[in-house]
């Protein structure tokens, strides 16, 4: 972790984090195809929308009224998003934040990312999510994110 890094303090910080995150996610062999091949995501179109989402999630200042679940459900209908896929998303998200920022807002962004990934996975997987990760009730693979977090600390 970059111990001298400042906290996420405004929309410009969020945009920089999100641009860096999506650049890594698009290039990632595991989750990249969801963005590049299946969704055909245009980062310049997506970035203002997703920045609004995260600005609302972290600072409660932006207006975000879009349905965040619908595009994920559409992707899932083409290619199932697994617990491992969501775990990889969390891993990249946390690494991106840890590489640039440290502080309460950075921690809030990481915690919110994990909650969102878990909620989306549970909702997409339906009732099977409760047993998908060996019966721990989570249906999610946070171990990779925890291992990465401890390696960066």
Description:
- This protein is an all-alpha fold and 153 residues long.
- The protein is 66% helix and 0% strand.
- The protein has 7 helices and no strands.
- The longest helix is centred in the last third of the chain and has 22 residues, at 104-125.
- Residues 127-141 and 143-153 have low confidence and may be disordered.
Class from helix and strand fractions: mainly alpha
Average pLDDT for all residues: 78
Overall, the morphology is: globular
Number of helices: 7
Helix proportion of residues, in percent?
55-70%
For the report, how would you describe the main beta sheet?
none
Low-confidence stretches: 127-141, 143-153
Sketch the topology as an H/E string, one letter per element: HHHHHHH
Number of strands: 0
Strand content: under 5%
Distance between the termini: 5 Å
Radius of gyration from CA coordinates:
15 Å
| Quaternary | single chain
Q: Topology, pairings included?
A:
Layout: H1 11-27, H2 32-38, H3 43-59, H4 69-78, H5 83-100, H6 104-125, H7 143-152
Relevant terms:
0% strand; mainly alpha; single chain; disordered C terminus
Task: Please outline what is shown here.
This protein is an all-alpha fold.
